[in-house]
Every structure is written in C-alpha cells, then in structure tokens.
Amino acid sequence: MSASLFQMRDSGEYWPESQNPIAAGWGGGYCGDQRRSDLAKTAAEMIAAFAAFVAGPDDVSTMDNLYRLTDGYKVLSVEDKASVVPSMFRLMERCPDADLGNPGPLVHSIESIGIPAYEGQLTDSIRRRPMYLNIWMLNRILNITPDGPQRAAYLTLLERVRDDPKWAGSVIAEAAGYLDHQAKRPRG
Question: pTM (2 decimals)?
C-alpha cells in the first residue's frame, strides 16, 4: 500500500492522503484543535471527518468540534445531506458515552432533512447500538406519531432496548423513561 493513502476506520476504504481529515488539520483522533470554520465543505469531506472523529465522556471540545464539522451541512444539496447522515449515526454509535449534544449539531443536521428521509437509518442505528441521542430522537418522533402500526413499532423498539441487558444501564433507563413518558402522554 502506498504511504500516500489512509484507511477510513468505518468502511476500510483507502482514500488519498490529501483527503485525510487529520492530515488536513482537522485534529488528532478527536478532530482536535482545529480553529478553522471551513473544515468540511463537501459531503465527502464531512463523511471523512465524521469517520475520523472520536470523542469520550471527558472531551471538553466535542461540541465545538461537532459544530465546526456540521457548519457547511445546511448548504449541501438534499442528496448530499442524505449521504452524510449515515456517518452521523455511526459517530453516535461509536461514541455512546460522549456528550454529542441534546439535541446538538448532529440532531439538528439530521432532522433538517425530514423524518421520512432518516427514520429507517435511525431505527437501524438503535438496533445496532442504542445510545442516549438516537433513542432521544426516536422519542421526539413518538411525540408526534399518532396511534397506529408505526407508533407500535417504535414503542416495540424502545421496549427491546429497555429489556436487553447488554446495553448500558443509562441507556436502559433512558428507554424506560421514554416508554413511561409515552404511556402517560395524552393522545388525541
């Protein structure tokens, strides 16, 4: 393999070093100390940056870095926005203990394309790795979903998270809290 290529963590693909978000000044494994506001201008750059992004529970610069990374999202075409969304969900799954916002830049970006454009990816993300942010997004959808088969499917998904001991206690508690909220929520 050429030294001018780097491997994307999520896909295993090799990209030219010129597209390496870390080499481009986007930081060490954390998107780190970037001070540029023009970090990711294209969908491909955003996808690469999200794939390189790592954050833990004690990272104080996470939110600033996420806002920088999503800065150009709103000017992308609808198709490009949709192509970036899976990388945002993978970031959530990879960093379940990090403070990624509430709602924060990831949720604002994802929700801007409309529920029909991302709901399948959201439920897939929850099935792979529930974490506070993706189940919070599902609760937001439940808040506006009338009784019926779709609502029942969403509630079943939350019940599976609540009932699966392999998930973190905090995630199980969040799912249980949302189920309780939904059970008490008046419906018309």
Answer: 0.78
